[in-house]
């Protein structure tokens, strides 16, 4: 059960999927971010940070930087999956990762706790980075009330539609898969 496909192949979580589909999908999502989401979100929050893509050299360096960042991100994701999943991705400690840890009266596999725990540990760092970025690049004039109302309505609408889509998608997945 994967997004965007009915196939159960795990090519995206293997090293042979580094270039295709991972790098291709990464470039597609980067394009969506830079051309669609970034301008809207930056306008809503009043952030002014020009990318400085005013020459072919700057555009080329930006694309090379994006390529390197995506490759590094994909590689570290694959390595981290190998350390926190007890399945075909595991390359060390498979028996240890499969052990159950009792937490609050319920047994949880160690690999699941590592996945969730490492994600939770990263959140404060990400919030700290976002706050400092905002403080550095916020504009000095207020964002118009019309833009704020429009953005909040879009956020509400996309959240409701996203939850509906999740509910609609989840009801086709057998109950056993969720446990």
State Rg: 20 Å
Q: Which structural class best describes the helix and strand composition?
A: mainly alpha
Tally of distinct domains: 1
The average pLDDT is 88
The biggest sheet, with number of strands, parallel, antiparallel or mixed sense and barrel status, is: 2 strands, antiparallel
Would you give an account of this structure?
- This protein has 179 residues and is mainly alpha-helical.
- The protein has one domain (11-143).
- The protein is built from five helices and two strands, in the order αααββαα.
- The chain has helices at 18-45, 56-84, 94-98, 110-137, 145-170; strands at residues 100-103, 106-109.
- It has a two-stranded antiparallel sheet.
- A hairpin with a 2-residue loop joins β1 and β2 (106-109).
- The longest helix has 29 residues, at 56-84.
- The chain is globular, with a radius of gyration of 20 Å.
- The chain starts with 17 loop residues before the first helix and ends in a 9-residue tail after the last helix.
Task: Please give the structural blueprint.
Blueprint: H1 18-45, H2 56-84, H3 94-98, E1 100-103, E2 106-109, H4 110-137, H5 145-170
Antiparallel strand pairs: 1-2
Helix pairs in contact: 1-2
């Amino acid at each position: 059960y994967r997004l965007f496909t009915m196939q159960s192949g795990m090519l995206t979580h293997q090293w042979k999927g580094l270039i295709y589909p991972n790098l291709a999908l990464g470039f597609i999502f980067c394009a969506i971010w830079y051309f669609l989401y970034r301008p809207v979100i930056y306008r809503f929050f009043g952030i002014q940070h020009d990318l400085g893509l005013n020459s072919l050299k700057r555009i080329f360096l930006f694309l090379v930087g994006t390529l390197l960042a995506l490759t590094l991100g994909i590689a570290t994701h694959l390595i981290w999956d190998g350390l926190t999943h007890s399945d075909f991705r595991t390359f060390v400690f498979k028996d240890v990762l499969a052990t159950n840890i009792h937490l609050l009266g319920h047994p949880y596999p160690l690999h699941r706790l590592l996945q969730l725990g490492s994600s939770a540990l990263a959140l404060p760092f990400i919030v700290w980075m976002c706050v400092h970025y905002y403080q550095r690049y916020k504009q000095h004039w207020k964002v118009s009330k019309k833009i704020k109302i429009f953005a909040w309505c879009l956020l509400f609408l996309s959240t409701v539609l996203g939850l509906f889509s999740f509910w609609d998608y989840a009801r086709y997945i057998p109950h056993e898969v969720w446990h």
